[in-house]
Amino acid sequence: MKRKLSLLLAIVMILSLVPMSAFAASKTRVDKVPSVAADHDFLAAGNEPTLYITEDKDAFDDGTNGGEIFRLVLTNAKWPAQADLNAEFTDAQLVTRLSDSTVEVVVYGTGATDEYAFPLVAEVTDEGEVKVTVDNRDSIVSSGTYTFAVAGKGKTVATVDKSKTIQYGSGETGARILIDEVTVGAVDESSKVEFVLPDGFEWTTGTVVKDFNGATISTYTIDKEELTVTFNPGAAGVRRTAFVTPVIKVTKDADLGDVLVDIHGGGDVAGAKDLLVAKYKDYAVTVELDSDLEKFNAGVVANDEIEVLIEESIANSLIDGRMIEFELPEWAQIQDGKNVTYSINGGVEATIETGDETENTSEFEFKWVDPGTSGADDILITLPLTFEADQAGDLVLTVKGAGIEEQEVKIAEVIAPITAEVKVADVKIGIQDQDAPEIIITENVEGALIEGGDLVLSLSSTLGMTFEDADFEVISGDLKLGDSKVNDHSLVVEIDRDSHEASKIRVYNIKMTLDRTVPEGPFDLSVGGSALVENADYNDEEFANNVAKFKFANVVTKAGGTVATTSKFVIGSTTYKVLVGGVEVEKTMDVAAFIQDGRTFLPIRFVAEALGVSTDNIVWNNEARTVTIMKGDRVAQMVIGSNVLTVNGVAVPMDTAAMIKDGRTVLPVRYVAQALGAEILWDAATQTVTVNQ
């Protein structure tokens, strides 16, 4: 009872510390966000936005406790005089101007769900976003900051449509220049404006100019690179726009590259610099995706194809008889039995030779033969692709050659079909049927797991681990599972029906056995199988047969069985001496110590004895041709013929390799000794190796 009372008191104390704003009960909005000049006065113009505050379920105080009292704080603006606020804030019970930026407002609830309107009759003071912040103080009005205008410098803003490519000659059309009023009626007088091209480019009489009232202006003047126009205001019912569509003569003195126009403003029209209206090139070819950007699952052979358009923006840019080269990342390959095709100017499809699935088909090319048509040509490339199972991300195609500047184009997004989640747990060596952590497999898209295929979770067959049992179940979605089984190093379940809703599979009651050769540290589990991977045989080096690997469990058991010793070996002698507890004993080996590649080699059993390792902690795997030695918290493993020593799962390079001599496995004693924490000494005069541990 005392504990319950204490808890209740604690809750009351906590609630007493929470401000009423935590229980805010209103919704707030601004009805419009106009673009205005940096000195715009909404009160004078009479076109102000309005801040609306709507109470939630008749929550506002009706005045019994003073009503709801809050503040409105401006940014980049100031409030008008008190008298103007009194006249405008008709929904307020009281409004008080505290400073240029802040007013305090009192509203009463009326017994119904009400909406209160506050005209934002502010005078703009600076460029940028003009904002009002609702500071609820201790009321239940919701706090928040809201933009109600965007203030610009000057009365107009100049922008440009997408730039165009032009070439040498007269009558080249550039991108249209737009001159927008910042506010309604901003341009209220005639304005003489100059548009200036770079040297080498000249305006021509084909240029089209439209006034703010929409009428075409024909009385402009041209002086080579200078175009002078007088714009006249129109009716001020809405914000208006004037247009200039450049028609340009490119002279022999023009430089290749960007064509930038400067505007020298006049009257109400503001100036502007570096408006990109065109790109001057002596040739131009663009490469772009000609279909919607699609997402593809890695590992599968999809039916969808990708279309890429190569287009001349200047006629004859593609060089006749030259090769056009295509390059994809090697994890993207052409589907077996399908071809890359192309068509020119919408004509008959032709095939690009790429090879079969056993070859690397991520690079291919074809020769451009000019069809002899007038005007610019285009080539539509169709790509039937498949993607390596363990890859994901943006697919980028590189195109170059035949006059095409090297271009990279994103043509697809490749996604991993599933993700795996596991809470990594500890497991121990030498224990059968021990519990392993649960696994959650989640489809990233519906149908990611293929009907009729197997989902397979696999361990490395060389780790000394096996699965004994596991259960599978669908915990969300409509995927249907079939039979499951355990195959030593893998867990397998059949996909009986694919999903129409991305699904989750739980793998649980997992039992494992670890023998004493398993190294300490984390190990991985791979996810694959025919339900996920259809293309493992693709590419000349073959694709991955797994979608993903993830950390599954952590081996924590330390091997024991060490004895302190000092051993001495003489090169060329089968006898050696062991000092244990101050007593020296002479022993005999069946193979003499020898030097090869500058390293001393000893038979495996005598290396282990010199390191104080019992024979129980030496494991030979004839199938894998590996020898594993365990000492304390260290596990060293070597493969016959390999110059890599693995210590607790970490690869250590050697300058020699374990070998078999006279039917005996012999090891480089220095590397093994150092790996297992022993001291190694060499006496060149006596050709003696001493191992202290």
Word description of this protein:
- The chain is mainly beta and 693 residues long.
- The chain is 6% helix and 49% strand.
- The strands form 14 sheets. It has a six-stranded mixed β-sheet with strand order 2-11-10-4-7-6. Strands 13-25-24-16-21-20 form a six-stranded mixed β-sheet, with no helix packed on it.
Write down how many β-strands occur, each being a DSSP E stretch of 2 or more residues.
62
Estimated helix fraction? under 10%
Strand content: over 45%
Q: Mean pLDDT, rounded to whole units?
A: 87
**Which structural class do the helices and strands define?**
mainly beta
Rg calculated over all Cα atoms:
40 Å
SS summary, helix count = 5
* Low-pLDDT residue intervals, each spanning 5 or more residues: 1-23, 558-563
Largest sheet: 6 strands, mixed
Please list the strands of the largest sheet in the order they lie side by side.
2-11-10-4-7-6
Basic shape: extended
Rounded to the nearest angstrom, the distance between the terminal CA atoms is: 64 Å
Features:
single chain, 693 residues, six-stranded mixed sheet
Topology:
Blueprint: H1 2-17, E1 26-30, E2 35-37, H2 42-45, E3 50-55, E4 68-75, E5 77-78, H3 82-88, E6 94-97, E7 102-107, E8 115-119, E9 123-124, E10 128-135, E11 144-152, E12 156-160, E13 164-166, E14 169-173, E15 177-181, E16 191-196, E17 201-203, E18 208-210, E19 216-217, E20 221-223, E21 226-231, E22 241-245, E23 247-250, E24 257-264, E25 272-280, E26 285-289, E27 295-297, E28 306-312, E29 323-327, E30 332-334, E31 340-344, E32 350-352, E33 363-367, E34 378-383, E35 385-387, E36 393-401, E37 404-415, E38 418-422, E39 425-427, E40 431-435, E41 439-443, E42 454-458, E43 465-476, E44 480-487, E45 490-497, E46 504-514, E47 521-528, E48 546-555, E49 566-570, E50 575-580, E51 583-588, E52 594-596, E53 599-603, H4 604-610, E54 618-621, E55 626-631, E56 634-639, E57 644-647, E58 650-653, E59 659-661, E60 664-668, H5 669-675, E61 679-683, E62 688-692
Parallel strand pairs: 2-11, 13-25, 27-37, 39-48
Antiparallel strand pairs: 1-3, 3-8, 4-7, 4-10, 5-9, 6-7, 10-11, 12-15, 14-23, 15-22, 16-21, 16-24, 17-23, 18-19, 18-22, 20-21, 24-25, 26-28, 28-34, 29-33, 29-36, 30-35, 31-32, 31-34, 36-37, 38-41, 40-46, 41-46, 42-45, 42-47, 43-46, 44-45, 47-48, 49-50, 49-62, 50-51, 52-53, 53-60, 54-55, 55-56, ...
